[in-house]
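Troubleshooting entry. The earlier prediction with adenosine-3'-5'-diphosphate gave an output that would not parse, so I re-checked the input for stray whitespace and re-submitted. Clean input:
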Amino acid sequence: MAHYTSTHRDCFLNKTKEEEENIERTFQGYKQLVSNLPNEEGSEFFDQICLYQGFWIADVHCQGVIAVQNHFKARSTDIIGATNPKSGTTWIKALLFAIVNRSKYPINNHPLLSENPHGLVPCIEIDLYNGRIPDLEILPSPRIFQTHISYTSLPQSMIDSGSRIVYISRNPKDAFVSLWHFKNKLRAVLSKPPLTFTEDFEKFCKGVSLSGPFWDHALGYWKASLERPQHVLFIKYEELHEDPVLHLKRIAQFVGYPFSSEEEKEGMVDEILKLCSFETLSNLKVNKIGKIVGTPFPNEAFFRKGMVGDCTNYLTSEMIERLDQITEEKCHGYGLIM
Ligand code: A3P
């Protein structure tokens, strides 16, 4: 079946040798720039993370962020799923893809049944600008992308063009626990020793985690959602869990693909929710045995428990209190409850 995947992978084709050399030189410059940033070693599954514009990013992805800032040209029709890692990226990718393409594919023969959501909706800085400059102009509208870039570091054209951004936030306690498991799963693949829970917790609290400080990341999008509600929608992972029908309809409306009353009567909302549910996706063959494209990492690393409140099985009451306190200090003044 021809679908979106082949299209975004086509964006790297047809470069002349001269263009390839220019791109290589450009990335050498970015690499140099990144090497001068403050950095931390060994705390992630990457060798090093660096502090860029107030946020911690893997060195190699930081080059991608700079490339996105310099080269990405947004369209008003672009739809962007934005997240802190482990806050619902896989879920929002699946939902956006299914919403926008619902008239293209029958549910029982859907790309999401044979491909991981990360293969269908690319992360701009990780999948598209990873040492390469894709020709995204060839993609038909609406283009769906995902990013972990903080709101304040988004390319200006994404703000100016009026692209629609759907941000999924998650409570920091569950997100931390999820991230710790994820990092250790990937480290095991690389034969690296696991990260100690308490040391990793300390770093997370200090803001030293992928895309961290966690709270600043969420706050940037929260404030933007208040200032530009037509362009930035802020939804909590927990809300999606609690009332998926309501929030799926909100997302569809927001990105310009509202459900008609006929579709609702025919059960389209429930079908999409079922297709994109943790239960369905995590039990698919592709997500049980497949690998993240171009990496040695298993797709199943993106699926663990998919529940709200798992943090209580891992965090002590002191740890919970500490994270709650940081959340209160950083976020409550802005009306953000996480
Ligand atoms: P847990 O580790 O708490 O289970 P991300 O997609 O941002 O990497 O986040 C991964 C987290 O979302 C994991 O949380 C994973 O289990 C959960 N998740 C993945 N797919 C999901 C889905 N379709 N619905 C709900 N949660 C999902």
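This one parsed fine. Residues 83, 85-91, 94, 174, 178, 181, 276-278, 281, 302-306, 310 surround adenosine-3'-5'-diphosphate (CB under 6 Å).
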